[in-house]
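so my prof wants the structure for this chain in the tokens format not the other one, which i didnt know existed until like an hour ago. anyway here's the sequence
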Amino acid sequence: MTEQLGELLDLLRTRSLRRGDFVLASGRRSTYYIDCRLTTMSGQGQRLIGALGLELLDRQGWAPQLVGGLTLGADPVAYALAHAAALAGRALDGFTVRKEAKAHGTARLIEGAELANREVVVVEDVITTGGSALQAIAAVQAAGGRVLGVLAVMDRNEGGRARLEVEGWSVLSLTTADELLGKDQG
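here's what i got, hopefully its the right format
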């Protein structure tokens, strides 16, 4: 896992890390921005995230039937995990939580799977404040899914993990902003 994690960190640094002055989705300002989608949507990123994510779920003892979260950041993470599970001969499907229910067709808020009475891990690309994960958790619970916890590619270390944990959710992350930036580079 250590070698794959090093590969993932290198990929995130090369593809996803930008320095400058940014306003985050939370409204906070930051001297760096991590656009994880540039990594999570790449073939190499998918391979690494799927393998590392499955290993982390196994170490935690979580055996979800479904993985997914709020579109768009969670989508490639869920699909990477589902694909890696399929390659390993394991059943695991992905789903997407829309930001709002469709106004036409089936008018669904959640696409890709029926969640009722199924064990679910909510996934994220980046946790900053935890708001997206909480929104996804609420949608999953409303659909009857049983949330085991949250798995993120990156924890920005800006209070999101603590907020989720205060709400009673265990949080796993493949890496953190401190690891990506180096503790003295912040």
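also thought this was worth mentioning. The mean pLDDT is 94.
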